[in-house]
Specification:
The chain is of the alpha+beta class. The protein has two domains: about 100 residues, DNA polymerase, domain 1, CATH 1.10.150; about 250 residues, hpI Integrase, Chain A (Orthogonal Bundle). It has a five-stranded antiparallel beta sheet. Strands 1-5 form a two-stranded parallel sheet.
């Protein structure tokens, strides 16, 4: 296409149609399919639905892939075929039947705990404990308790990530993807600049500001000033480690970019430190923070519109209602402390920010609301 006017640009545009991480995942899954085809002495391009049907059985035999996680493997095959003008083979009755059978077989042989919302009282206690212990952990004489500078930074990080995620209904990946320049704590707000999941190619991002001067709600003082104190303590502990400021908010010097897996580990370790476990048959996972904050806000009668705005849910969809809202969650003092500011309605939502996805961070320009 390079000989045609615009051909080179079109190829470049097509290559940037998906996020880099999506492209990397597609390449990895395609290579796995290509290797399977080679082992069967088959040509991977073009493939047939019967080949993909057998490949699903191969993935099931590995025993390491959940039926609910099959789609990226199949999408990679379909995408590669579409790129070359071939029919998509990972579709149709055979492939669908194999997927359904795999899901049914796994359901029969696996017992999994059901994810439940994190109680607001747990998030509040995680915050209180961190503030109470941050100095004692450095000064303790018992080496089994005392933390060095890095250990203290790790402790404060996982607890700040825990409560911050609860308060802004954050996904695991949204929380770990916060850049250092997309977060700040000033005299009036904890502010976050957020890009929605699956909308990173769009130019507008939400700016969320959590007010530090929120009045008491239902007789309970706001916990946001305490959250700001924890955030400052974490940032100070990170800075004390030396070196340049890491690109990512929850990244310490010398570490790779944090991922959702790291967030899950931080949540599990924090709950272990607090001696908290879910009821039998249930589990507190990373997404329990998002559903916990959402359910607690609904319990104290935060308007559905404001709750959807804070969590980035569609104002017309039902995703939050179906998957992130538990009507059995009751109003608590902790919920008013952590989320009562949403009831007041005097907080600033800030402005949207226009950011060209291919430009450097310094090139952002403000746009109107």
């Amino acid at each position: 296409m390079g000989a045609w006017s615009g051909g080179t640009t079109a190829v470049r545009l097509a290559a940037s149609a998906r996020e880099d991480t999506t492209n990397e995942g597609y390449d990895r899954h395609w290579n796995e399919f290509d290797e399977w085809c080679a082992a069967q002495q088959l040509e991977s391009l073009p493939a047939t639905p019967r080949m993909v049907f057998a490949y699903v059985g191969h993935l099931a035999d590995k025993g390491t892939i959940a039926a609910g996680s099959l789609q990226p493997y199949l999408s990679a095959i379909n995408s590669r075929h579409a790129d070359y003008g071939f029919e998509r083979p990972a579709l149709g009755h055979l492939v669908t039947s194999a997927r359904k059978g795999m899901a049914r077989a796994q359901a029969l042989c696996e017992t999994r705990d059901t994810r439940v919302p994190m109680p607001a009282t747990v998030a509040r206690d995680v915050l209180r404990t961190a503030l109470r212990r941050r100095r004692a952990l450095r000064a303790a004489r018992d080496p089994r308790v005392r933390l060095d500078a890095r250990g203290l930074a790790e402790y404060l990080r996982r607890r700040y990530a825990f409560v911050l995620s609860f308060v802004f209904f954050g996904r695991q990946d949204s929380t770990t993807a916060l850049a250092s320049c997309d977060h700040g704590i000033d005299a009036n707000f904890i502010w976050l600049r957020l890009t929605e999941k699956q909308k990173r190619s769009q130019p507008y991002r939400r700016v969320v500001r959590l007010p530090l001067d929120a009045p008491p709600s239902n007789g309970h003082a706001s916990a946001l000033p305490d959250l700001a104190a924890l955030g400052r303590a974490y940032l100070d502990a990170r800075a004390a480690l030396g070196g340049a400021t890491p690109r990512w908010l929850l990244q310490l010097p010398g570490e790779p970019k944090p991922t959702a897996r790291h967030m899950a580990e931080w949540v599990a370790l924090t709950l272990k430190e607090e001696g908290v476990s879910a009821p039998a048959g249930f589990a507190y996972l990373g997404h329990s923070l998002r559903s916990g904050g959402s359910s607690a806000a609904e319990a104290i009668k935060v308007s559905r519109f404001r709750g959807n705005w804070l969590g980035g849910w569609s104002q017309t969809g039902r995703t939050r209602e179906l998957h992130y809202m538990d009507p059995s969650v009751l109003p608590t003092a902790a919920a008013f402390e952590l989320l009562g500011w949403l009831l007041d309605g005097t907080y600033s939502t800030g402005e949207f920010e226009r950011a060209h996805p291919q430009r450097s961070r310094g090139s952002r320009v403000r746009a109107g609301r």
